[in-house]
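Open question from group meeting: does this chain pack into something compact, or does most of it stay loose? Before anyone orders reagents, we agreed to write out a predicted structure and look at it together. Recording both the input and the output here so the notebook holds the full record.
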Amino acid sequence: MKRIMWLGILAIILLVLALRTAQGHMLNPFDSFHGFGTWFAALLTLAIMSFLYNDNPVYRFAEHLFVGVSAAYWMVMGFWSTLVPNLFGKLWPSLTAKLFIPGIADQPRDPLWFLYFIPLVFGILLLLRLAPKGGYLSRWALALILGTTAGLRLIAFLTADFMGQIRATLNSVAGYVHPSLPGGTGVFSFEQMFWDVVSVIAIMAALSYFYFSKEHKGNFGRFSRVGIWVLMITFGAGFGYTVMGRIALLVGRVEFLLVDWLHVL
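Structure tokens returned:
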């Protein structure tokens, strides 16, 4: 049944292609770069969608092409937007201005320019992961990147998300939010206070599920089971939001096929 369905879809696409081409409404891929690009993008889209039928060489070709082009694109973007201005421009401003960015040599040289040799060394260590030997040296650079990023992100999330949400919830639970605070109106809101109390109870119930120093029996066990429901609703909402985003991407590709490529809408 699955094979018949996809064969039917392919037959419909081929029929529409034949009709639109006969009527002169289809872009000729050999007339212009735009026409070639539209046909190329449409064929790659169909190649990716062919995975719904089964894993096949056409899908693997499109997948490898997408990964390779994306990796090359971000490598080039990283070189020109990060390495050139933030590393080479700090170490060798005159040479960088002459070879890459005219005008950067007019900027004053950083008095601590020699410290930029440290990220240069760690960047070279990262590239050693691609070498046949010495790949273990890249672990030092990875450890530094992961540790530094985790520390910086932790502080940012604690300040913006964790403490900010606690402050906003407790202020509204009191029934009055001062006008100087974010979102504050200075007016008592029973509805806002009610939902914030529900949020506090839900958070405490979810945290109690992960409290393993006390056996989950009696009232505490029932409260922790409420936490399970809170977690299920939260994960379900997050999963639904993700699916909705993927459906939006699918709608965009189908619209591209029907409007820009086939011109049937």
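Observations to bring back to the group:
The mean pLDDT is 82.
The chain has eight helices and no strands.
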